[in-house]
Design a protein that fits this description.
0% strand; 110 residues
Length: 110
């Protein structure tokens, strides 16, 4: 009778070892799948961060160009106003090519 219990205990211990090894194998497989998914996600995040950095760089460049264009337009507007004021103050007449020639001759003579 004790031999039967001994053999039965041995078989149960082998079954428990098989069950434990199968659980460990499945857990290891699941872990490797999760690690692969994590690696893919990290790669995607790095690509997105790189794209965001590139977009931010382009946006900064566009802001800089707009600022330069605004400064150029302001300078041209001031220059145009100065010329307009100069012609308007030079004579009470409307600007025409002949009045411009007369003003230029007066400046050279004066």
């Amino acid at each position: 009778m004790t031999q039967v219990f001994g053999i039965l205990g041995f078989i149960l211990s082998l079954l428990a070892l098989f069950f434990a090894s199968e659980v460990m194998r499945r857990a290891s497989h699941s872990q490797s799948e999760l690690e692969a998914a994590l690696f893919k996600a990290m790669t995607r995040i790095q690509k997105l961060e790189s794209n965001v950095f590139h977009v931010e760089k382009l946006a900064a460049e566009i802001r800089h160009q707009r600022k330069r264009q605004a400064e150029t337009l302001t300078a041209l507007a001031k220059k145009g106003e100065a010329q307009k004021t100069e012609y308007a103050e030079g004579s009470g007449e409307r600007f025409t090519p002949s009045t411009h020639a007369a003003q230029s001759a007066n400046r050279k003579a004066g």
